[in-house]
Design brief:
alpha/beta, Rossmann fold, six-stranded mixed sheet, about 20% strand, binds flavin mononucleotide
């Protein structure tokens, strides 16, 4: 060991890529609160910044089940409020959204538009069944089209936030 070299050099100095300074953000949309709770838990565990995406227009319950589900199935976007973080400043972007009619809620399609290319993306889908098999391939394709470096896809069976 050279004179003056620290006994325990930081991970970055040891050449461990990503062990140090990996900046993570959890971007989520939640309608009834389950995904909010889940996203907060993930952010706490990973030491990540937590960012809520809000839709510009409030949804009624009936409107959500009818039009929201229909829009989700057609992979339509919804109008969302701007977020105050630039996602290009993060190495890993975790996105958490609920599942409507077997598809991610429309807010996901708007969040995807905000994604910079060449990022590690993790998608967490919160649903009462924990099953998105009918839409998973289509959703992954949308994210891959943004030029993601890697995509991890996770289904989570939700526990009611109430
Ligand atoms: C309009 C609507 C459609 C839903 N469709 C499904 C579905 O197809 N499959 C499923 O397992 N859960 C479905 N759910 C349940 C939600 O995905 C689940 O409760 C989720 O955790 C809600 O997240 P949130 O509380 O963050 O909005 C639906 C909920 C809503 C409001």
């Amino acid at each position: 060991m050279k004179k003056g070299e620290p006994l325990h050099p930081p991970a970055k100095a040891r050449g461990v890529r990503g062990a140090c300074c990996m900046k993570t953000v959890v971007v989520y949309y939640s309608y009834t609160g389950n995904t909010r709770k889940l996203a907060a838990k993930i952010a706490k565990k990973q030491g990540a910044v937590l960012v809520e995406v809000k839709e510009k227009k409030a949804r009624s319950k009936v409107g959500t089940y009818l039009f929201g589900s229909f829009a989700a199935m057609r992979q339509k976007k919804s109008k969302i409020e701007p977020i105050k973080y630039d996602l290009s400043n993060f190495d890993k972007i975790i996105i958490a959204v609920p599942v409507w009619a077997g598809y991610p809620a429309p807010a996901l399609n708007s969040i995807i538009e905000l994604l910079p290319s060449d990022k590690n993306i993790e998608l967490v889908l919160s649903s009462s069944s924990g099953d998105t098999s009918k839409s998973a391939d289509k959703t992954k394709a949308l994210i891959s089209r943004r030029g993601a470096k890697s995509v991890i896809y996770t289904d989570v069976k939700s526990v009611s936030a109430k």
